[in-house]
From TrEMBL:
<dbReference type="InterPro" id="IPR047155">
    <property type="entry name" value="COMMD4/6/7/8"/>
</dbReference>
<feature type="domain" description="COMM">
    <location>
        <begin position="115"/>
        <end position="182"/>
    </location>
</feature>
<comment type="similarity">
    <text>Belongs to the COMM domain-containing protein 6 family.</text>
</comment>
<dbReference type="GO" id="GO:0051059">
    <property type="term" value="F:NF-kappaB binding"/>
</dbReference>
<dbReference type="InterPro" id="IPR017920">
    <property type="entry name" value="COMM"/>
</dbReference>
<dbReference type="Pfam" id="PF07258">
    <property type="entry name" value="COMM_domain"/>
</dbReference>
<comment type="function">
    <text>Scaffold protein in the commander complex that is essential for endosomal recycling of transmembrane cargos; the commander complex is composed of the CCC subcomplex and the retriever subcomplex. May modulate activity of cullin-RING E3 ubiquitin ligase (CRL) complexes. Down-regulates activation of NF-kappa-B. Inhibits TNF-induced NFKB1 activation.</text>
</comment>
<protein>
    <recommendedName>
        <fullName>COMM domain-containing protein 6</fullName>
    </recommendedName>
</protein>
Length: 182
């Protein structure tokens, strides 16, 4: 129970940091793995729903300047059967950090699209397939880590042939050239 409260508290704090644009988002998959490692059964989808509810709740409470009691009452209306200890964690985090949430128009406008977090790539060679015993086909796998507008971080992966990668690289060089003129 204590471990769950700590991890929920961490999730709430990360949501507040995201709402303040201090971090690009909350890595739900990583948090879910930590919760499961602590022995609590929860899936990524359920944790993502909880994150969305808390994020909506915190941003709405900040916009409307809600007191802690008003926030807890709103939480009770939004989520039925939420465990008492979870409500206490949310109440505590809001008491400590809720007033720090920025509600400026500029901050709200910035949160309308996803944000790039990280990129990883690797070069691979497909050796064979069902149709061909000797392929020796090179490819590049790219994994982008992106925070969606709600603040959830997800990995997006895709593969490219070498000609596709060369075109991709050429476009990045063109972007870099344009950025140098700014």
């Amino acid at each position: 129970l204590r471990m769950f409260s700590n991890l929920l508290s961490l999730q709430c704090e990360q949501i507040i940091q995201h709402l303040n644009h201090k971090i690009p988002g909350v890595n739900i998959a990583e948090l879910c793995q930590r919760i499961q490692t602590s022995g609590i059964e929860i899936n990524v989808g359920d944790l993502a729903k909880i994150a969305n509810i808390i994020s909506f709740l915190f941003s709405t409470a900040a916009r409307n300047n809600l007191s802690t009691e008003e926030l807890v009452a709103t939480l009770g209306n939004a989520v039925s059967a939420l465990p008492k200890h979870a409500v206490q964690v949310i109440r505590h985090v809001w008491n400590e950090q809720g007033k720090s949430i920025s509600v400026s128009e500029d901050a709200r406008n910035m949160a309308t699209m996803g944000q790039f977090v990280d990129i990883k790539w690797k070069l691979g060679v497909a050796m064979s397939s069902d149709a061909c015993r000797s392929l020796k086909y090179p490819y590049v796998t790219v994994t982008l880590k992106v925070a969606d507008p709600s603040g959830q971080i997800a990995d997006k992966s895709f593969e490219m042939t070498i000609p596709q990668f060369k075109n991709f690289f050429k476009q990045f060089k063109e972007m870099a050239a344009v950025l140098e003129t700014v």
